[in-house]
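[step 3/7] inverse_fold.run input=structure_tokens len=213
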């Protein structure tokens, strides 16, 4: 996806992908990763998700990455946190107690730039990317985090009925992207009530990814 697509979404407030409540997949299944309180959780393409509030309330530290600086500003406003802002060659970094968010192109991040990560929560990143970008994205996350556990939330639906994002990511693709490095456990497979965007029948799938020994 072109960066201008997402910038336009935030600038025109067309953010139907932004959930007003905590994602049920997070609250039900994140504990299955077995991460202790204080662990640093990476949230890619985080927007201003309310799920960050939940993670912080549960005692986790959050490291986010988001293309839109407008979204990041709104996130900190809603968290009622005054961030320190640092300019870097790849984008600004917003930091406050318990949370650090990198703005700009996620593909510019490195393991050195984000530091140690203990787990990944991917609710809206993999499904936001078209097929051609997903292999590179999955490899990037594994590389910069040293293959840490992940909770990944996806959708499956007939892509002929609706254009993404969010895109349909079937189980077969999850296996191709992650099975060489992770044990895959599908911990949820349920209908999307009312259909996806009210347009077509869909299922929400939650995957727990445990690094292979």
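[step 3/7] decode complete -> sequence:
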């Amino acid at each position: 996806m072109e960066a201008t697509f997402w910038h336009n979404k935030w600038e025109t407030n067309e953010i139907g992908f932004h959930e007003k409540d905590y994602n049920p997949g997070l609250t039900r299944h994140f504990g299955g990763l077995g991460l202790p309180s204080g662990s640093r959780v990476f949230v890619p393409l985080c927007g201003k998700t309310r799920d960050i509030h939940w993670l912080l309330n549960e005692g986790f530290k959050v490291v986010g990455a988001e293309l839109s600086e407008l979204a990041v500003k709104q996130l900190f406003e809603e968290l009622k946190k005054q961030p320190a802002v640092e300019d870097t060659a790849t984008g600004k970094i917003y930091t406050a107690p318990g949370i650090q968010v990198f703005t700009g192109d996620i593909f510019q991040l490195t393991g050195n730039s984000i530091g140690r990560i203990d787990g990944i929560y991917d609710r809206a990143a993999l499904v936001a990317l078209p097929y051609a970008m997903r292999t590179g994205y999955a490899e990037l996350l594994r590389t910069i985090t040293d293959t840490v556990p992940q909770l990944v939330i996806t959708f499956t639906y007939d892509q002929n009925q609706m254009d993404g994002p969010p895109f349909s990511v079937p189980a077969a693709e999850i296996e191709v992207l992650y099975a060489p490095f992770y044990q895959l456990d599908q911990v949820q497979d349920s209908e999307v009530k009312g259909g996806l965007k009210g347009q077509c029948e869909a299922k929400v799938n939650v995957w727990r990814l445990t690094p292979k020994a």
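[step 4/7] annotate
The chain has one domain: 3-12+21-211.
The first strand starts at residue 40 and ends at 44.
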